[in-house]
């Protein structure tokens, strides 16, 4: 069964494709199907994910899944949150993972409380008007390092130090990272919900 992923992020597609494989689902990036990006006007992950999923389902006629994820830094009152993808642009940098990391480390210089969480909210709908969307949330708590460490992953993985492993997400093998990341947690919960309610 094909499921539209309401994203064109290659890293997100690869991670979720591996995580959804046990259900025999094939994720197709919305761009491959000509789906335009949805507006994301809301201040919560769940509202934005639902909007993206409904948009993808509306344009394709297929069931859709959307992920809205971000970094929530304790010292910044939970920000950047839903603005994570554009974090660097607030500080004069171009949009992009490397610039987001650079901006974050600059803003955290001298900040003692480095606790943060990567949060992923997955929403799946069977149709654009699905009255019962499936919602799954994953949260990986860690600490922001002083400098990037590791070559793997994407986004904030090089600066997200996970105490249980004594490493950043970027230092972990993909299968270990996927099993423990915010997106991995949300995907496992989503698979459970799909098995229970859709299949």
TrEMBL record:
<dbReference type="GO" id="GO:0009117">
    <property type="term" value="P:nucleotide metabolic process"/>
</dbReference>
<keyword id="KW-0547">Nucleotide-binding</keyword>
<dbReference type="GO" id="GO:0009146">
    <property type="term" value="P:purine nucleoside triphosphate catabolic process"/>
</dbReference>
<dbReference type="GO" id="GO:0017111">
    <property type="term" value="F:ribonucleoside triphosphate phosphatase activity"/>
</dbReference>
<dbReference type="Pfam" id="PF01725">
    <property type="entry name" value="Ham1p_like"/>
</dbReference>
<dbReference type="GO" id="GO:0046872">
    <property type="term" value="F:metal ion binding"/>
</dbReference>
<dbReference type="GO" id="GO:0036222">
    <property type="term" value="F:XTP diphosphatase activity"/>
</dbReference>
<dbReference type="GO" id="GO:0036220">
    <property type="term" value="F:ITP diphosphatase activity"/>
</dbReference>
<keyword id="KW-0479">Metal-binding</keyword>
<comment type="similarity">
    <text>Belongs to the HAM1 NTPase family.</text>
</comment>
<feature type="binding site">
    <location>
        <position position="69"/>
    </location>
    <ligand>
        <name>substrate</name>
    </ligand>
</feature>
<dbReference type="InterPro" id="IPR029001">
    <property type="entry name" value="ITPase-like_fam"/>
</dbReference>
<dbReference type="InterPro" id="IPR002637">
    <property type="entry name" value="RdgB/HAM1"/>
</dbReference>
<dbReference type="InterPro" id="IPR020922">
    <property type="entry name" value="dITP/XTP_pyrophosphatase"/>
</dbReference>
<feature type="binding site">
    <location>
        <position position="177"/>
    </location>
    <ligand>
        <name>substrate</name>
    </ligand>
</feature>
<feature type="active site" description="Proton acceptor">
    <location>
        <position position="68"/>
    </location>
</feature>
<feature type="binding site">
    <location>
        <position position="68"/>
    </location>
    <ligand>
        <name>Mg(2+)</name>
    </ligand>
</feature>
<dbReference type="GO" id="GO:0035870">
    <property type="term" value="F:dITP diphosphatase activity"/>
</dbReference>
<keyword id="KW-0378">Hydrolase</keyword>
<keyword id="KW-0460">Magnesium</keyword>
<protein>
    <recommendedName>
        <fullName>dITP/XTP pyrophosphatase</fullName>
        <ecNumber>3.6.1.66</ecNumber>
    </recommendedName>
</protein>
<comment type="subunit">
    <text>Homodimer.</text>
</comment>
<keyword id="KW-0546">Nucleotide metabolism</keyword>
<comment type="function">
    <text>Pyrophosphatase that catalyzes the hydrolysis of nucleoside triphosphates to their monophosphate derivatives, with a high preference for the non-canonical purine nucleotides XTP (xanthosine triphosphate), dITP (deoxyinosine triphosphate) and ITP. Seems to function as a house-cleaning enzyme that removes non-canonical purine nucleotides from the nucleotide pool, thus preventing their incorporation into DNA/RNA and avoiding chromosomal lesions.</text>
</comment>
<dbReference type="GO" id="GO:0005829">
    <property type="term" value="C:cytosol"/>
</dbReference>
<dbReference type="GO" id="GO:0000166">
    <property type="term" value="F:nucleotide binding"/>
</dbReference>
<feature type="binding site">
    <location>
        <begin position="7"/>
        <end position="12"/>
    </location>
    <ligand>
        <name>substrate</name>
    </ligand>
</feature>
<feature type="binding site">
    <location>
        <begin position="154"/>
        <end position="157"/>
    </location>
    <ligand>
        <name>substrate</name>
    </ligand>
</feature>
<feature type="binding site">
    <location>
        <begin position="182"/>
        <end position="183"/>
    </location>
    <ligand>
        <name>substrate</name>
    </ligand>
</feature>
<feature type="binding site">
    <location>
        <position position="39"/>
    </location>
    <ligand>
        <name>Mg(2+)</name>
    </ligand>
</feature>
